[in-house]
Specification:
Elements (H helix, E strand, L loop, with lengths): L5 H4 L4 H7 L4 E6 L2 E13 L28 E6 L3 E8 L6 E10 L3 H8 L12 H8 L15 E4 L10 E4 L16 E4 L9
Antiparallel strand pairs: 1-2, 1-6, 2-5, 2-8, 3-4, 4-5, 7-8
The protein binds a DNA duplex through strand 3, strand 4 and helix 4.
Amino acid sequence: MAKISLDYYRQQNVVHLAKDLLGKYLFTRIDGQLTSGMIVETEAYNGRTDAACHAHAYKRTARTSIMYEAGGLAYVYLCYGIHHLFNIVTNQEEYADAVLIRAVEPVDGLDIMLARRGKSKPDNRLTAGPGSLSKALGINRSFYGESLDGNTIWLEDRNIRFSKGEIVETTRIGVDYAGDDAFLPWRFYVKDNPYISKK
DNA sequence: CTAACGATTCGCT
DNA sequence: GCGAATCGTTAGT
């Protein structure tokens, strides 16, 4: 077992961590049903400096409070009243940083993921996009605050490493409200991977 | 208590 | 390419 330990998530540079998470495997086990995917797209959010982060400038609310905990917890919230978006809380206590997982490449439990997504055949949209991958992996708001060191949701390092040329760094999606911070190159994805959320 | 609004997705044109 | 779907969170009355 190559489960990633909590120390990993407590690194202080959330942008570096978002890039490093590419190639890691995300697992869920719900009622004995195992599903997983390899992370191929992420975005970094920095609580102290970044206007796009829900916890921007020490804004502590009921929803964002989990981001102020030490790294290694799940931050899941409902977006547009429809989609559950899965983030990993990072950095030390009081540093409200998080990485949004935007896309994975399906690995284990393909039939389970198809059923959850209401699809009969696999396609490139099965786990592409933050709402889609959460649905495929069965992640919902009940995962809010769940430790990534447990047996329900966790990450594994299977020694997949991407070279600099295989990783694209660009601006984040859907954060126009953040002013200048919308232009930060804090979105990372694996070049040419068919499961990234947008071209 | 009320109202506005999303770190999106899917289907239809 | 465009617009509807849909509801918890948030801030303001």
